[in-house]
Amino acid sequence: MSAGGSVTLYYVINDVSSVDHTSLYTNAFSGVWHLDQSDYSIASGVNSYVLENANAGYWIWNVWVDDTGSGDYYIFTENQSFEVIP
To answer: Taking the model in full, what pTM does it have?
Structure first.
């Protein structure tokens, strides 16, 4: 993707019965790992977050799941990455 555009980050949750919300963590924009946004309207299956006006660079991300039934966890065992080209 090109700088200043948007990037869509997809993730899957199969059982949402005890999920309160998910939170996108990334180092995009600031270079520091931080909470970027949260979603309280989770659907079973594919979900996504959209990052707008992304800066050029190589960024990492992951999704934190607040699951009141089986415990909180990250969707991916390793952080995912994307690159924004100037």
So the answer is: 0.91
Domain 6-84: CATH architecture, name and number where available: Sandwich (2.60)
Instruction: Give the residue extent of every domain in the chain.
Output: 6-84
Residue whose token pair is 């600031």: 30
Cα distance between residue 57 and residue 39, in whole Å: 25
Give residue-wise pLDDT tens across range 12-65: 999 999 999 999 999 998 899 999 999 999 999 999 999 998 888 999 999 999
Pairing of strands 57-67, 19-26: antiparallel
Judge whether 1 and 84 are in contact, CB under 8 Å: yes
Q: Which two tokens stand for residue 48?
A: 């996504």
Helices (H) then strands (E): counts for the chain: 0, 7
